[in-house]
Amino acid sequence: MQIKLLALLTLCLTFVACAPEQKCSGDLVYDENMVLCHPCPKDSTFKDGTCICKAGYDYVNFQCKLKADAMVDMEEDAGAPPDSGTATGGATCEDYCTFSNSCLGMNSLAGALGSLVSDLDADDPAACKSTCENALGSAQSSSAALSCFAENKANAMCKDPMPQMGLRAAFGVIEQCCGTRPSDGLCKSICGVLKPNPIVGSMVMFCP
Predict the structure, then answer these.
(1) pLDDT by residue (tens digit) across 140-186?
(2) Nearest Cα to Cα of residue 39 among 186, 191, 172
(3) How far apart are CA 147 and CA 82, in angstroms?
(4) What is the 3-state secondary structure (H, E, C) of the chain?
(5) How many Å separate Cα 42 from the centre of its chain?
(6) Long-range contacts at 18-26 (CB < 8 A, ≥ 24 apart)
(7) Any idea what the Cα angle at residue 31 is, between residues 34 and 113, rounded to 5°?
């Protein structure tokens, strides 16, 4: 079962062709290291297999990051840079739990993930909210990871007709939001479940 599931979470599946142009459906960018598909960050556009960030930003490690030599007028550029560490738009644990439930808990292949779904509370929004709030404490309003999940929950393509693609998209969003934020309380909680899991533990290289 584990071998079959690992194959399921890679892009070269029995049901999916392995040609580069067919590795991701829709506006998703292929990550050859993690063998996952990523949605483009907010305020960027998908073009020719990659993401194009707005002026003054480069697309690096699946995020839009401020150029070192860019002179950005912060009065015109509302909001903080994507990896600033500050939550924006009033993101809450409900945003993360909506993502978790719709992308993992409600996926038709959730049963094949064993206890992973229940361990993440992805099948119980109320428990998920409680776990998230406990993990973040008073830092909920400043969690950059929480903002990332809020921004990407609508772009995760979890409703993809192929549930395999939905799972890959979900793990891609988790990597995008937690890959550069290992100290974020929510990411610590998520990685605390993913890392020791015998099914996906070896695949979540972004978890310390």
Answers:
(1) 888 999 999 988 876 666 766 678 888 888 888 899 899 889 899 99
(2) 172
(3) 9
(4) CHHHHHHHCCCCCCCCCCCHHHCCCCCEEEECCCCEEEECCCCEEEECCEEEECCCEEEECCEEEECCCCCCCCCCCCCCCCCCCCCCCCCCHHHHHHHHHHHHHCCCCHHHHCCHHHHCCCCCHHHHHHHHHHHHHHHHHHCHHHHHHHHHCCCCCCCCCCHHHHHHHHHHHHHHHHCCCCCCHHHHHHHHHHCCCCCCCCCCCCCC
(5) 13
(6) 20/49, 21/49, 25/157, 25/160, 25/162, 25/165, 26/157, 26/160
(7) 45
pLDDT interval class at 12 (50, 70, 90): very low
Tell me which of 187 and 41 has the higher pLDDT. 187
Alpha-carbon separation of residue 75 from 53, 70, 89, 160 (angstroms) = 18, 14, 17, 38
The tokens 């939550």 sit on which residue? 87
pTM of the model: 0.59
Phi, psi torsion values for 202, nearest 5 degrees: -75, -10
| Residue bearing tokens 């007709």 | 161
- Between 25-34, 52-61, 164-173, 192-201, the lowest mean confidence (pLDDT) is in 25-34
Domain parsing of the chain, residue ranges: 2-40+90-194
